[in-house]
Design goal:
The chain is an alpha+beta fold. The chain has a single domain, classed as RNA-binding S4 domain (Structural Genomics Hypothetical 15.5 Kd Protein In mrcA-pckA Intergenic Region, Chain A). The protein is 30% helix and 14% strand. The chain has 2 helices and 4 strands. The termini are far apart.
Length: 57
Amino acid sequence: MNEHAPIRPEPQRLAKRLAAQLPCSRRDAEHYIAGGWVRVDGTVVEEPMARVRDEQA
C-alpha cells in the first residue's frame, strides 16, 4: 500500500446518508428511496442498502 495515498472513507448506506442530509429518519429515507424519489449521480436508486461515497451526489 502506498503510504502517501489519500485515505478514502468507506461507502455508506444510501438511507443513512440521505437521513443525515435531509434530516429525516432512516425509515423515512428508505421510503423515499424505495419510492423512486432519490437519484445518485443522475440515476434513480431504489435500494436503501445501496452504498454511496461522499463524492457522489
